[in-house]
What we know:
Layout lengths: L5 E7 L6 H15 L4 H27 L10 E5 L1 E2 L2 E2 L2 E4 L12 H28 L3 H19 L6 H17 L11 H4 L5 E3 L2 E5 L32
Antiparallel strand pairs: 1-2, 2-5, 3-4, 6-7
Helix pairs in contact: 1-2, 1-3, 2-3, 2-4
Protein name: Ferric siderophore reductase C-terminal domain-containing protein
GO molecular function, one term: catalytic activity
Organism: Paenibacillus agilis
Amino acid sequence: MEESSDEIYSIRALDFLDKDTNIAYFNKVASIYESTSEVVTASLFAKRYACLSIASGLYAMSMYNKSMDYSLENCHMESIFHGEAWLPCVRLTNSEVSQPGAGERNEWRDRVIQNIFADNIARVWDSFSKSVKVSKSVLWENTAIYVYWLYENQFGEGASACQQAQLLEDYQYLVDEAPAHLFGETKNPLKKFNSPKKVTTASETPLRIRKTCCYYYQVADDNEYCPTCPKIKHEFVSV
């Protein structure tokens, strides 16, 4: 609800549609990620932006049947540091809440999904990919992994049986049934990257191996890969 005092890393989401603004912003946040590549910086920042843009919106939708306006025109990214940790948040200019009418939840849900993805995420990813030539597949998989993680591991905490059922229904709709236009794409990007989890020799916990690399290893200590990185030679275990 409040504007950050940090004007260096805070930005209107709408400004991400400008190529020069993107490049200038990536040059600034590169120092946070210790990155020397615009493509790497764009990918790593996209992870943060995706989580900030979808987490609260999808949680409100699935847990409480409520929504707010997450369109680019209504969003600001406010920079906040806790010690050395950079933990920005999203501020909405208009925080008015809407709810579905009786018997209209499915249509309302489509509008919520379109507002978060087509009216925000897709426009930013298209701009990022044109600004620094980062692959949109990488950006969309960066988004998809957070949707999977939030619904599979986070949203259900403390949920009632009714809320659990709605979470599952919404999740299945997002990753399997939702039409592509709600995401501003020609194919549903969440369905595209939703591969089955498998046990590998490197992990006893089943993993959903990524199809694209997010470039994290280029800024990690000792060039360490994410556990689900496709660059790792995963040997799958039969169970």
